[in-house]
Amino acid sequence: MSAQATIIGLASLFVLMASANSQSASPSLSSVPPSAATPVGNLDDRPALEAFFDGAMHVGMEEHHVTGAVVSIVKDGKVLFAKGYGKSNLAKGTPIDPATSLFRIGSTTKTLTWTAVMQLVEDGKLDLDTDVNTYLKGVKLPEVFGKPITLREIMTHTAGFEEGFLGYLINSDPKAQIPIETAMAVHRPAEVSPPGSMSAYSNYGAALAGLIVEQVSGVPFNAYIETHIFAPLDMHYATMQEPVPVRLAPYVTTGYKFENGGEVAQPYEIIGGFRPAGSGAISALDMTHFMLAHLQAGRYGDGQILKPATVELMHTTAFQLDPRFPGMALGFYHADINGRDAVGHGGDTVYCHSDMLLLPKDHVGLFLSFITQDSRVRERIEQAFFDRYFPRTAPQPPRLPEAEAINLAAKYAGAYQWTRRNHSEIEKVLNLTTGLKVDALANGNLVVSGFGQDPLQFEPIGDNLYREVLQQNVQVAFRTDSSGHVTHMFFNMLPFMPTERAPWYDQGSVWFTALGVIFLASLGALASTYYRWREIRTMPAAEKRAVWTAALTAFWAVATFAVLGGVLALTGIDGLLERVPTALRVGLIMPLLLVTLTIYLIVITLSVWRRRFWTVGRRIGYSVMALAATLLCVFFWQWNLLGWRFG
What we know:
This protein is an alpha+beta fold and 647 residues long. It has 18 helices and 22 strands. The longest helix has 38 residues, at 541-578.
C-alpha cells in the first residue's frame, strides 16, 4: 500500500479519498504559527522545528483520536529531528520513544521488499525484464494476454492484477498464518489488463516479489531482510516477523479503535502470507537509517546495501500515466508537493498510518506514523510541514478562458471507476460505492464526487488538465482515444491508481436505481396479496398458485437483499479483511433460491397471459414482479453474488 493506497485494500482506499480533500480543509494545522524569530524554511533551527511539530501534533492528535505518533527527519546525512508523542500503550502508560517504539509501517514495507529485489538484480540473480515464472518454483502466472509478467511491471504496479482481500489480507490470529507461497497460490487474483499497459496498485504483486526473493536467494523472506538490510543498516528495532520476536515484544505499539467515546485496544495486526507487502514494524530512528541509505547512494555508515547506480535507477521514473504528472519509479513513487519532487512510499494498516518521503535534491527525508483509524491526520500534518518549510515558489499556470473552458467541460462529465478493483470475486460488490462522478459546471469547471468526504471542484489549466480550485497541489488529467472520447482520468497524487470511464452496467447509480425499482415492485406485490386476501382464498388452484408464487418471490427478493446487506454492514470492512463470516456463506444460498423462484415465476407468468386468468391490468402488474425478480437475479450475477466466489 502507500500513503494513498493501503494495506487494507479497498477499505483504506476510502479513507485515502477523504484524506486528499482534507489537505485543503485543515486550518487548524496549517495555521500553526512559526516562531517569530525563525524564517520559513529554516529546517536547521531545531527548537523552532520542535515547536512546530509539538503544536501540529497537539492539534492533530486530539482531532483525529491519535493515541501515539512519531516523526523523524534526516538532512545532509544525519538525523535532524526525532520525537514521539502520546503513548504506545494506554493501559501501561508507556510513552512513545522514537528510538525503540515499533510502529506498523504497512505498505512502506514494500520499499524494503523492492530493495531486496534490487540487491538480487545487482547480484545477477534476477532480471527486471524476464518472465517472473522463470524465478517462481511453485506458483506460476498464466500468460492471459499472450505476454509474460516481469518484475519491472510488478514494481510499477502495471502487472494487470485485479484487487483482492476478502477474508485473508489481515487477521489477528498468529496461528492462522500461512507461508507466502501458499498465500500466492490460494489467493492469486485474476489478470485483467495486459502487462505494462495500465497501473493498478497490487499487494499481491509485492508479496509475489517477496516470494521471488525468498526462492531465488534460498533464504526465508524475513531472514533475508534481517540479514541484508536491517543488519548492515544497524536497524535493531525493526522486524518483518509477526508477532514480533520476543526481544522486541516490549516495544510494540498497541493499535486502538475509537468507539463508544473511548479508545479500545486491538490485537496485533497479522499480514501473514502477504507480509512482503506490509508486515514491517520499525522504530522511527531505525527508519532514518533506511532513509539515509537511499539518500546517500545506498550507504549508511560503513554499510552499503545498494550500488549508487541501483539507487538512482530505483528512484527514476519508470512508468507515467501522464507526462505532466509524477510517475512510478521501481517500487517507490514520485509526488509533487508544493512544486518539489518527492520520492517515497506510505503505508496503512487498520490502526496505524505512516509515510516516508525523500527529497533527494534537498538531502532531506521525512518519516511520520500515527496510531489511529483516521489517516487524514497524516496528510494534514505532512502538508502543514511542507507549507512551512518547503512552500511553493513557482507561479501556477493561469486558468483557461471561460469560453474555452465551457466548450471543453461537457466531454469529461460522466462516471469513472478505479482500475484498482475486483472483477471476478465477491469483493466486486464493494465497487458499487467506490465510483467517481464528474459533473460540468456552467462556468466550465468540473466537480468530482466520490473522491473524499466532499466534492472537489477543478478549473482548467491546459489540454485535458485541471487543477483543484482550493488545494492547487491536486490536479487531474484526462486521456482520450483517437476519436477524442475520454477513456481515463488520472490524479497527480496517485501515479499507481488511475480511473477509467465506467460503462453503464458498472455504475453504482444505475444499480441503486434498479434496486429501488425492484424494492417498490416487491412491496407492491406483497401489498396486493395482503389487500386481496379474501379474493385469493376463493380463487381456483392455478390462479392461487400464481399469486402465492409472486408473493413468495417478492418476499424472498426483499429478504435476500436485506440479509446480505445486513451481514456486510454488521461485519464491517475491517472484519471482512480477516475472515469470511459464516453468516455471509449461509446467506449466499438465498440468491440461488431466488433464481429458482424467479424461473418458476416466469413460467407461471407466461401461463397467466396464455390462460388469461385476470384482467390485462392485473396481468401487467403481475408481470412487473417477474421482471423485477429477473432484474434482481441479474444484479446478483453482475456483482458476483451468485455462488461462493471467494479468493
